[in-house]
Each structure stands twice: as C-alpha cells, then as structure tokens.
UniProtKB/TrEMBL annotation:
CDD domains on file: SDR_c
Keyword match Oxidoreductase: yes
Sorted UniProt keywords: Oxidoreductase
Organism in which the protein naturally occurs: Nocardioides marmotae
Stored InterPro entries: KR_dom, NAD(P)-bd_dom_sf, SDR_fam
SUPFAM superfamilies documented for this protein: NAD(P)-binding Rossmann-fold domains (SSF51735)
Classification via Gene3D superfamilies: NAD(P)-binding Rossmann-like Domain
Name used for this protein in its record: SDR family oxidoreductase
UniProt key word Oxidoreductase: yes
Record-linked PANTHER family: OXIDOREDUCTASE, SHORT-CHAIN DEHYDROGENASE/REDUCTASE FAMILY (AFU_ORTHOLOGUE AFUA_5G02870), SHORT-CHAIN DEHYDROGENASE_REDUCTASE FAMILY PROTEIN
Ketoreductase domain ranges (all copies): 8-192
Domain of life: Bacteria
Length: 248
C-alpha cells in the first residue's frame, strides 16, 4: 500500500454534528478526508464542500457501519489512510432500562459498540505497518456516559460506550508496535441533534446547567481534541480516553 503525501483521514458519521466539525478541523490541519455517511447525502455533500473550501481533497462514501460488509467496502473505497475517526453513533431512546424495548437495546449496542469494533478492525488492517500500511491513528468517539452510567436515560448506550473504552485500551496494546495509536474521545453534553433525535427535544436545556462549566459543549471543542490526538504532538498517547465534557 502506498503512503499518502498528506495525512488522509476517514471520518464515519462525517455528514453532520461532531463528525462534520472533526472533518472541518482536520482539513484546517492539512488532512485530506474521506467522509462516510448513512442517510443524509445532502448534509454529507455540504460538509464535503466546506472541507474542500479549506483546501482539502474530499471523497464522500455511503456506508452503514452496522453492516460489516459495508465497512470493508468503505475502507476499500477509501484507499490508503493515515487516520480514522470512528464517530458514527446515536443514543436512539431516552428512558429507564426496564421500559426500553429489547430491539432498541440490541440496536444501541450494535451501533455504538459492535460497529466500532468493525471499524477498528478495518482501521488497523489498513494502517498497520506489518500489513503494508504506513501507520496512523484511530480515534473512536465514546461518551462521558461510559463513566456516569446515564441512569434513567440510556444505560444500554452507556454500557456500549464503556465497551469502546475497553476496546481502545486492548487494541492500542495489540498494535502499539505496529505504528498505530488507538485512542478515544469521550464528549460530555455537546450541542448536536443527537439529543432531539433520541426523542426529547428539550434535553439540552434540561441537562446543560448540570455541566460544571454551566453550558453544553460545541462540536468544534471536541474536534480540537481529536485533531490534537491525531497530531505528532500526541505521539506518545495511546490506549486512553480523553474526556471533553466541561468537567462533567
Ligand atoms: P449526530 O446525530 O449529529 O450525527 C450522527 C452521525 O452518525 C451522522 O453523521 C449519521 O449519519 C451517522 N450515523 C448514525 N448511524 C449510522 C450508521 N448506522 N452508519 C453510518 N453512520 C451513521 O450525532 P453527534 O454528532 O452528536 O454524535 C457523534 C458521536 O458522538 C456519536 O458516536 C455519539 O454517540 C457521540 N457523543 C455525542 C454526544 C453529544 O452530546 N452530542 C455526547 C457523547 C457522545 P446520517 O446523518 O447520514 O444518518
């Protein structure tokens, strides 16, 4: 596999929210981008145009990350990579576990943990030096919910995101001598449509004041942490989760 001249990073869930902010921030840091989206082609195209206006080359690919075949096809389409941001995820539902339908539990774990494992597997296959890659960085977007447990809201999501932290630690050690760093970022309460999409339009206003800094975060503040983790300045950082949660 050839080494790209510039950093070349795949972002899943790159169409909107945190993923789109990460794409814009990495473009400003000199990365070329591959943006993966699932349903919102219009948003993906809009983000791609913003990224290109910042001087980056950008390819848009449709892929549902819960489908392992689609993940492999996505990496095939992406070509050589030096970075992967595994960001696609959703809370899907708000309420106590006892009242959560079993299919919602299954879909939540599938989207927030199983798909992260598929993407991580493909990422280390693409970037490991021993497999012909040029080395690189995998950043998975976890959640502060992994350490709060999110009682009464989405315990199944918190459990899945805790799995991301364990995956990050174990996989980082597996590939530490193969040129690949593996890290996670755990956002707190960030202003995106994820909260309303889970069925409670007013959630941001309800939980925002509980953040020690007194406000929800901006997706750009998560993107800054991702960009640092992907940079040479973080060359000795692997196997850990960085919280970006305003103290929450
Ligand atoms: P958004 O709802 O704004 O964006 C979610 C993104 O994920 C979209 O680009 C969507 O693509 C994509 N996506 C969803 N399901 C799939 C799938 N099956 N396959 C491929 N892509 C998919 O959410 P956020 O930006 O807020 O969330 C990004 C990440 O951050 C998630 O992992 C989330 O769990 C995590 N997080 C967010 C927090 C917050 O407060 N916002 C807090 C903690 C963690 P499309 O639109 O094309 O369907």
């Amino acid at each position: 596999m050839t080494t790209p001249d510039r950093p070349r990073t795949l972002v899943t869930g790159g169409s909107r929210g945190i993923g789109a902010a990460v794409a814009r921030r990495l473009a400003r840091a000199g990365h070329d981008l591959v943006l993966a989206y699932r349903t919102d082609a219009e948003a993906a195209t809009r983000t791609a145009a913003e990224v290109e206006a910042l001087g980056a080359a950008c390819t848009v690919v449709r892929a549902d990350v819960v489908d392992p075949g689609a993940v492999d096809a996505l990496f095939e389409a992406a070509g050589p990579l030096t970075g992967v941001v595994s960001n696609a995820g959703a809370t899907l539902h708000i309420g106590p576990l006892a009242d959560t339908p079993v299919d919602v539990i299954a879909r939540t774990v599938e989207l927030n943990l199983t798909s992260a494992l598929y993407v991580a597997r493909a990422a280390v296959r693409a970037m490991s030096v021993s497999r012909g890659g040029s080395g690189g960085v995998l950043v998975t977007i976890g959640s502060g919910a992994a350490t709060t447990g999110s009682p009464g809201e989405y315990v199944q999501y918190a459990a899945a995101k805790a799995g991301v932290d364990a995956m990050t630690l174990g996989l980082a050690q597996e590939v530490a001598r193969d040129g690949v760093r593996v890290v996670a970022v755990a956002p707190g309460i960030i202003e995106t449509t994820i909260h309303a999409d889970a069925g409670e339009p007013g959630r941001l206003a309800r939980v925002g004041p509980s953040v020690p800094m007194g406000r929800p975060g901006d997706p750009a503040e998560v993107a800054d942490a991702v960009a640092w983790l992907m940079s040479p300045e973080a060359s000795y950082v692997t196997g850990t989760t960085v919280r970006v949660g305003g103290g929450r």
